[in-house]
Amino acid sequence: MTSPTLYRATILHTPTNPFTDADALHAHDDGGLLVDGGVIRAAGPYADLRAAHPDVPVTDLRGGLLLPGFIDTHVHYPQVRVIGGLGLPLLDWLDQCALPEEARMADVAYARGVARDFVGGLLEAGTTTALVFGSHIAGAVDVFFEEATRRGLRAVSGLVVSDRLLRDELHTTPERAYAEGRALTLRWHGVGRNLYAVTPRFSLSASEGILEACAALMREFPDVRFTSHINENGREIEVVRDLFPGARDYLDTYEKAGLVGRRSVLAHNVWPSDRELGVMATHHCTAAHCPCSNSALGSGFFPLRRHLDAGVPVSLGSDVGGGTGFSLLKEGLQAHFMQNLMPDGVPLTPTHLLYLATLAGARALDLDGQTGSFEVGKAFDAVHLSPAPGTPLDAVFRHASSPERALAAAFATGTPADVAGVWIGGEHVHARSEVQAV
Ligand SMILES: Nc1nc2[nH]cnc2c(=O)[nH]1
Ligand SMILES: [Zn+2]
CATH topology for 70-364? Predict the structure, then answer.
């Protein structure tokens, strides 16, 4: 475990939900966090903490912003190398870009390289916890958890299962899905920072039999998480309707199997019915909003206001590789743009964006007792944004009239190049390599 450290920085976090609490943003120009054993033991003005703990070594992070580590609630590990397949709608993009690459994960050596690229990409973007769509290949899921463990990421992931309409190499059977999922759960769930997520790809590629196998796993391991896709694209929704003639709607395909609960995260939900929103709210099931992906694949505008009015929790996802990169700053900005462009959009402030990128994700994963904000008793999961001198963001930071103004600029123009350091459970898991001036 790490020794006690006092972090000094401009600190911002949202210990509550700004969609329901006008005072959700907590900002300290010269704040302090006392961290011991990876856990935040005290928080407040730096001067007060220094006076109370005069002998503890100080890590001075002034000149930037210290935020809770970002929480990406929808991202695909095998797709990191196919980011950028722009201009195709979902089902064509899957056929032409994503699925051929996902089939390559049968080669474990290849999967190892992909896992390194993927976990490195998350950490460099400031993501400290991620709900990760694993691979259809069990060996490649092991490789992912090994790499997440090596780098210290908080990973929630599992075997992706499908038994129709993808490619033969990616199909399994309900029996094998259950057996491999069970073995992976026993190997990884609750081991270190890892948690297991039962993950049927989407109802289009999942028979009732395989959804039932997923449900059997969840009954056996009631604290695993559940994730899948829903209501992303018009054509996809039509096919699901044809495949499940007895279902009331898309959500019903998961609901009938007993897969919708407070530890369920459904990605996209661009085209929900009122019934679906009502059921998601009743079960505290989260919608993971992936605005860059929705734009890149032309999926549509996420009806955030309808989700909020119905009481459905919403978090953010990068959806790499349908999405365009790992930065949740960029996802926040794109969410803001899209709401601005909608007739009934929700005006999103920097405080909303910070919440969506942090505590909302922790709540979606039922990890808000451990991460998502800087409250005493939580793990020290943090991202230090400190732009390189001479960049426009550096100029804004140096002249910002308030921490909130600097936060707005971080969402507007920040990138992984501005992530100077990342901590998970008090461990310094990423430090930006400084480019030498020539
Ligand atoms: N965006 C996205 N949607 C999906 N629906 C089923 N699989 C996928 C995927 O890989 N990406
Ligand atoms: Zn996805």
Answer: TIM Barrel (3.20.20)
Pocket test for ligand 1, best of 72, 73, 76, 171 (most atoms within 8 A of CB): 76
Domain 5-68+372-431 listed as CATH 3.40.50.10800: no
Q: Please give all residues whose beta carbon lies within 6 A of any atom in ligand 1, as ranges.
A: 76, 90, 94, 98, 201-202, 229, 232, 293, 319, 322
ipTM score over 0.95, yes or no: yes
Sign for the pseudo-dihedral over CA of 316, 319, 322, 327: positive
Query: pLDDT, tens digit, for every residue of 319-334?
Result: 999 999 999 999 999 9
pLDDT band per the 50, 70, 90 thresholds, residue 230:
very high
Q: Which of 79, 90, 231 has the most ligand 1 atoms within 8 A of CB, as the residue to mutate?
A: 90
- The phi-psi region of residue 85 (left if phi > 0; otherwise alpha if psi is between -120 and 50; otherwise beta) is beta
pLDDT value of residue 2: 73
With CA atoms as reference, report the closest residue to 82 among 318, 327, 291, 320: 320
Q: Where in the chain is the domain with CATH 2.30.40.10?
A: 5-68+372-431
pTM of the model: 0.98
What is the percent of the chain with per-residue pLDDT over 90, rounded to a whole number? Answer: 98
Ligand 1 geometric centre to CA of 88 (Å): 12
Q: Helix 328-341 vs helix 350-357: angle between axes, to the nearest 10 degrees?
A: 130
